[in-house]
Design a protein that fits this description.
mainly beta; Immunoglobulin-like; 4 domains; 33% strand; disordered N terminus
Amino acid sequence: MATLADSGLDGAHILGAGLEDDTAYAEKTGYYALRSGVTGIGVENDTAYAEKTGYSALRSTFLGFGVEGLGAIPSAPGSFVADPHATDGDKALLSWTEPAPGEGALASLEVRRRLTAFLSEADWVSAFVVTDPYPTISDIVGTPKNMTATGLVQDTDYFFAVRYTNSGGFQGPFASDGVHTRDVAVPGTIAPFNAAAISATQIDLTFNAPDENGVTPPLGGTCASYLLKRKTGADFLGTEIDFNNALTIASPVPLAPPTATTISDTTVVGSTTYYYRIKSQDEAGNLSAQSASAFTTTPSGDVAAPSATETTAFTAAPVPLTGTQIDLQWGEGADDAGNLGSGPVTKRRIARKTSAFTGTQPDFDAAFTVLDETTFAIAAPGTTRNFADTAGIVQDTDYFYAIQTEDDVLQKSAIVLSAPSPVHSTDVVSPGGVTNVLAVGTSTTTALLQWDETGDSQGFAPPDPGSGPADHRIIRWSTAPFDTTQVQFDAAALVADPQPPMAQATTSVGMTVTGLPPGSSIFFALQVYDEAGNRGPISTHAAPAMTFPIGGIPESTGTAPLNLWGIG
């Protein structure tokens, strides 16, 4: 049954009118009909409830009779859209089409706004009522309607909703849409704006980052970009045409205000005056006003890079008999490469590594500094210089050297290597002596000889890296005991038989020695050498090896091990 229309007589006392079964329930729209109190009238089952919208339709009563069938509500406005204003940040443009009135005619409309979306009837009730002029109601379904909402804040999210009420007093559902108002606040003008010539090829521009909305930082936000312009020959005129026609210089992404900012222009040349102006820009494309001009003149145009060396090549060589010094030599570089008359370089650095240089600046900068201009003064270009590097040099080790110079305008020379291959520090540590030397005669002219190997460097033992095998050994024999002097050793007979390969220290090795005199006491001695020619001590044995006499077995063969070869 349709709800009684609201006539403004809710709660009136009317005599003699009977209203029964006065119930209204709109399942789709969810409207709520409130019961009216009428004297002498019984009203039953007069309830309707809409869970979703919570709308109320008030039942009215009239004298002597019941009015029914006035319960239809307006539909929601169609195609509701909220757009930002074309130019103003404090306005929004609203548009929609007029809804169906439901029953009767459309009587009124209302627009409300809030900062978050309209999701419920409670959102509508709590929203701000927009009081700007509403469009005239035409009561023709689908008629386009437009209005302008004012009093907004620029660069802000807003949500708007509109709904209609018909002549029966029924209010229809709302339509809503969101809008972000136009950002019209221009960023702050950069001031102060300064320029300083760092070298003939670099000018630094300094300023504090401005706010994107032109307010006192940090109340606003960070700008989106800078527009930096440069001129030579004459200052800026202050016009937009002049500014736009100037050369654009690359600039970094802005930092948060009011961060101190430096932009380096490295596209300049020497002996030239440069003028700069800058604008800041926000994400909406709004540009600030031009800054005041910043200008400076670069120093003389030294554009020639220095040389690392001149006349004498850069070399490195180990010092004989010492493993802790490498001698360096080079000719001093010139301020302009190839021009000895250009004067000396300003800085010079020699660096060292135990692995090859890659040729990159970071690799060179990270290497150990052997010397620079503060520790070894710079001389005239082409002067031959010598320097003994003893800083932490380890014997028997590979080293790589490189040199680089810099002139007065911070231009660097190429990185020059002493050689593609390393210089090897002198090996000054002799091998140790072999141990556990044993010998026994095995025939009239042969004997078995056994010993334990020594390493390349005395004092190093496996698995220390310095314990590698020695380079070679010399074995000699004599019929008289060795006194371990070098003179006696060098005068003894040389064992010419093939020797076993060199092995790691403590390895047991042996061989058969031939060509010995029959029936003789034979003494053996061994001496080991490394690849640098360092020789170890002379090693021998106490008991001689006895070769067999011709035609018989010797009465004594000396003391020989049961297992000469150390097997088993």
